[in-house]
Design brief:
The complex is a heterodimer. Helices cover 25% and strands 34% of the residues of chain A. By secondary structure, chain A is α+β, with helices and mostly antiparallel strands. Chain A has two domains: 238 residues, P-loop containing nucleotide triphosphate hydrolases (Rossmann fold, 3-Layer(aba) Sandwich); 107 residues, Beta Barrel (OB fold (Dihydrolipoamide Acetyltransferase, E2P)). Chain A has a six-stranded mixed β-sheet, sandwiched between helices. The radius of gyration of chain A is 25 Å and the shape is elongated. The two termini of chain A are 43 Å apart. By secondary structure, chain B is mostly helical. Chain B has a domain of 228 residues: MetI-like (MetI-like fold). Chain B has 25 helices and two strands. Chain B has a two-stranded antiparallel ribbon. Chain B is globular, with a radius of gyration of 25 Å. The chains are: A alpha+beta, B mainly alpha.
């Protein structure tokens, strides 16, 4: 598979009044393959939108270069910057950005009219695009009379009508209600299969990203954390941040001594874990609450009691003290413990991370804004 | 495009109370109707009645004669020409500068925005005075200078023409469009433009096909304001037009009444011309509505993002210079001219230091007339501001919250003076309150000016209070009722404090323009009731131009001081 979007050492720096210099995007290197659906996932301010806007051509880059379909479109070294309209992209925005002064047909026909396509072809191609987005029959309606879902379909139809090779989706589902979000996700995937375009999908919703992507990039504070398939990211997150963003997580700070791991500050009882030889003195153990298990006391594991029991829709959640920290365990409803009851907790498939501090400090600094 | 209607809670607590007993609500509704009847309806009815009736008998001859008289038709034609050109040029200028400041990367934006609001505060008739001093076809200072430098046989520029009037009006009216459009541009969702770029449109195509159509409602609203203001405007055409016998309908009305010495016949002729002017305004409103069918688009969606500013590149410095030059030309130059002339011993003397004196200021501050004028203006402006503030809020409250039968009529009546020229309103007020109704004769007193100001400015305060009341959700008053407060107590303790900031800004919205008003008071002043604007106008009319300039300088000083105070007050206000 050929690489359709390539970012090499892309860096974007801003100077703001309140914070001084900010590296919004720090040395991004990635390549997206033809026909792939690639997500940018991260909290706000992580650099995902800025990266997308640099690919689209709304922002110039400070350093590095961007290649689209084998053609260099932005390069700091060559002082090259192709205007957004000349990059041949399709794009859908969060707030739909359908033009309120044009009806559905005119909105979708706009890109073709700009290209000076002849009239009969415009009608044919617009109708085709409307057909694929289930908008047939609404040609003469104005966007303000349509629902959010329909408005987003107009935006999609407008994006596919020129048959672009690359489609940029900037949080296209976050203004829709949850049910509609799922439907639209399927429709986007179906359109992709039909027209075989490459998708870059920006979102802060991990479940959405995992459901739609072939591969995804997780970033934080302007840095790429990890790029991989959803499965690999979920099963082998490279750090505590990625672990946390990809699914519900529960963390225990531990100290290691003589090949055993103790909850930080409590050395009476060791955790039921195998400590690797290269582990540092202080570590963080990350697990998924729904993978951890609870058994009666005396069946191995870490001996403790139930602090709190919360009945969720599909599982029961227990908070159990480990030293002075609380560990989250979610079990099927049929496993029942009552509050105060003694039990043993088993950490399943734990991930070990160094006790981090630097990233948290930077986060605190930026959130002063 | 359909506008989304306001969907408030229709079964207001107030309405429920209203059914129970006679109370404050009914009283307030009653007061509103009576006051609006007195202030707005009676003067308007009087104009129509007197245009077509004489001493109780229908008489159309006078009206027909006035309407068909060549001078009046000419005046109507001039009025239309000036208004149409001023609107077109002012709109183009306003949109251009709004685009420059709203969409491009021109430097020093904050400062530029503040500066571009100055022409809005600058009284246009003082601007006209200054331009007349510079480019009068016979004696303009700069005209003379140019003539001497280039050895011309005649004066190069004649500001005493239709085009001169259009030029001055455009200079001071373009901010109407500018302010509306620049705020629309700033609130616009930038992705609307970005998606057009992605669709393949060039920057230029985006401006024409996306940006301009989307701000069209704002452009249209601003243009309408220029059009109606220009049609009704007295100051500029009277200062620049009289010398060459160029009349517009408002100046013609003034001339007719002035020449008749304020006799009833003259006033009746004025009434006939007023009907003509109102017809022109109405026609213009309809026409404008046809051309730019207004509506509002919902263009403020989505997360706010740094909009991509258009890079002007090489054009940046020339355009910056152009903007600065414009400001210098329409604000600084006239101001400097007025100040310079105010120091002259006599008008016509060369602008040399040996001809300068402070005598004019001495006269201004010692002459009874001018001191009285300042006092009169302060009194009427403050009184009109305060009364309108309360009355406007009352009407707004009745319309928005009590919603009685006839609420539509109430709304229309209070907004009516907005579309009716100040000159016309003055005639109505004269006809109504100079002894013909219940023997009340306010003519030649300060009260008649106050009554006219009330009619003219009521809609200003009603608009701001209305907007604020719409923001006070009925649940706030309901919460207070649940806490045990009565309807009246809730009104006093919850609603009023919440809309107080809007009331205060409503006051200044009236006070500031009233301070420099001429159009209305020029027809209503008596020997002892000249306003500041009238006094400047009369001094100039009497040939005492340096003294007029000195008083104008003082007036501008007062306006600047007051404006600074207002900005200070409104900056740190709190509320809904």
């Amino acid at each position: 598979m050929a690489d359709q979007i390539v970012l090499r050492n892309v860096t974007k720096r801003f100077t703001t009044k309140t914070l001084g210099d900010i590296v919004a995007v720090d040395n991004f290197n990635l390549s997206v393959h033809e026909g792939e659906c690639f997500s940018f996932l991260g909290p706000s301010g992580c650099g995902k939108s800025t990266t997308l806007r640099m690919i689209a051509g709304f922002e110039d880059l400070t350093e590095g270069e961007i290649e689209l379909c084998g053609r260099l479109v932005s390069s700091s070294k060559k002082n090259l910057y192709v205007q957004p309209e000349d990059r041949g992209l399709g794009m859908v925005f969060q707030a739909f950005a359908v033009w309120p002064h044009m009806n559905v047909f005119e909105n979708v026909a706009f890109p073709l009219r700009i290209q000076k396509v002849n009239k009969t072809d415009i009608t044919r191609r617009v109708n085709e695009a409307l057909h694929h987005t289930s908008l047939t029959g609404l040609e003469n309606v104005y966007p303000s009379d349509l629902s959010g879902g329909q408005q987003q379909r107009i935006a999609l139809a407008r994006a596919i009508v020129t048959n672009p090779k690359v489609m940029l989706l900037d949080e296209p589902l976050s203004n829709l209600d949850p049910k509609l979000r799922e439907t639209m996700r399927f429709e986007i995937k179906a359109l992709q299969r039909k027209f075989n375009f490459t998708i870059i999908f920006v979102t802060h919703d991990q479940s959405e990203a995992m459901a739609i992507s072939d591969r995804m990039m997780v970033c934080d504070m302007g840095k790429i954390m990890q790029i991989d398939t959803p499965e690999n990211l979920y099963n082998k997150p490279c750090n505590r941040f990625v672990h946390n963003i990809l699914g519900e997580s529960t963390f225990i700070n531990v100290v290691t001594k003589d090949g055993k791991a103790y909850p930080k500050g409590h050395t009476e009882q060791a955790l039921d874990l195998t400590v690797s030889a290269d582990a540092a003195d202080e570590m963080v153990v990350a697990t998924r609450p729904n993978e951890n298990a609870l058994t009666g006391p005396g069946e191995g594991g870490f001996h403790t009691h139930i602090e709190k029991r919360i009945f969720l829709t599909d599982r029961t959640e227990y908070l159990v003290p480990v030293g002075d920290q609380l560990l989250k365990v979610q079990t099927p409803h049929r496993v029942t413990f009552s509050e105060g009851e003694e039990c043993a907790v088993h950490l399943v498939e734990p991930m070990w991370y160094p006790a981090a501090a630097a990233a948290d400090k930077e986060r605190a600094r930026r959130q002063l804004v | 495009m359909k506008r989304k209607p306001y969907t408030g809670v229709s079964a207001d607590l107030a309405a429920v109370d209203g059914r129970k007993r006679l109370n404050w609500d009914k009283l307030m509704t009653g007061i509103c109707f009576v006051l609006l009847l007195i202030i707005v309806v009676i003067p308007i009815v009087m104009i129509i009645y007197n245009a077509f009736f004489n001493e109780g008998k229908p008489e159309v001859e006078m009206f027909v004669q006035q309407v068909t008289e060549k001078k009046n038709l000419e005046a109507m034609w001039n009025t239309l020409q000036i208004a149409v050109f001023a609107t077109i040029l002012g709109t183009i200028m306003g949109v251009f500068y709004a685009w420059l400041l709203g969409c491009s990367d021109i430097p020093a934006k904050g400062l530029m925005r503040a500066l571009f609001n100055i022409p809005y505060m600058f009284p246009p008739f003082l601007g006209a005075m200054a331009w007349d001093m510079m480019f009068n076809g016979r004696s303009g200072y700069i005209n003379k200078l140019l003539k001497d430098i280039f050895h011309l046989s005649s004066m190069p520029i004649n500001i005493n023409s239709i085009w001169g009037i259009v030029f001055v009006e455009v200079s001071y009216y373009f901010p109407f469009v500018f302010m509306q459009v620049v705020s629309a541009l700033e609130r616009m969702d930038p992705t609307l433009e970005e998606s057009a770029r992605i669709a393949g449109a060039k920057q230029r195509q985006v401006i024409w096909k996306i940006t301009l159509p989307l701000v069209k409602p704002a452009i249209s609203a601003g243009a309408l304001l220029i059009l109606t203001t220009s049609l009704a405007h007295f100051g500029v055409p009277s200062i620049l037009g009289y010398a060459k016998g160029i009349y517009t309908l408002p100046t013609r009305i003034y001339a007719v009444i002035y020449n008749s010495g304020g006799s009833f016949d003259g006033i009746r002729q004025g009434a006939a011309l007023s009907v003509m002017l109102v017809v022109v305004v109405a026609a213009a409103l309809i026409l404008q509505n046809r051309i730019l069918s207004s509506g509002s688009y919902d263009i403020i969606k989505g997360k706010s993002m740094r909009p991509t500013l258009i890079k002007l590149r090489g054009a940046k410095i020339p355009l910056l210079l152009l903007a600065i030059l414009t400001l210098v030309l329409i604000v600084i130059v006239p101001l400097v001219m007025i100040v310079l002339i105010s120091f002259l011993k006599a008008y016509g003397l060369p602008l040399a230091f040996k001809n300068f004196t402070l005598a004019q200021y001495q006269k201004v501050f010692t002459a009874n007339g001018t001191i009285a004028a300042i006092r009169n203006s302060l009194f009427v402006s403050i009184a009109a501001g305060i009364i309108c503030m309360f009355l406007g809020t009352l009407v707004a409250y009745v319309v928005q919250k009590i919603k009685p039968k006839g609420k539509g009529a109430l709304e229309v009546i209070s907004m009516l003076p907005y579309a009716i020229p100040g000159t016309v309103l003055s005639i109505g007020v004269i006809l109504a309150w100079s002894g013909r109704i219940a023997g009340i004769n306010l003519y030649n007193t300060i009260w008649i000016i106050l009554v006219a100001y009330l009619a003219r400015y009521l809609s200003f305060s009603m608009k701001t209070s209305s907007a604020a009341l719409l923001q006070v959700h009925s649940s706030l008053e309901e919460a207070s009722r649940v806490c045990g407060a009565s309807h009246t107590e809730s009104l006093a303790d919850i609603t009023l404090p919440l809309i107080r900031p809007a009331m205060v800004s409503g006051f200044f919205l009236i006070f500031l323009p009233a301070m420099r008003e001429v159009t209305t008071s020029i027809l209503l002043y008596g020997p002892y009731t000249r306003t500041l604007g009238v006094q400047i106008y009369s001094l100039r009319d009497a040939g005492m131009i340096p003294q007029a300039a000195a008083l104008a300088t003082v007036a501008i000083g007062i306006i600047i001081v007051l404006n600074t105070i207002v900005t200070k007050i409104t900056k740190d206000r709190k509320g809904v």
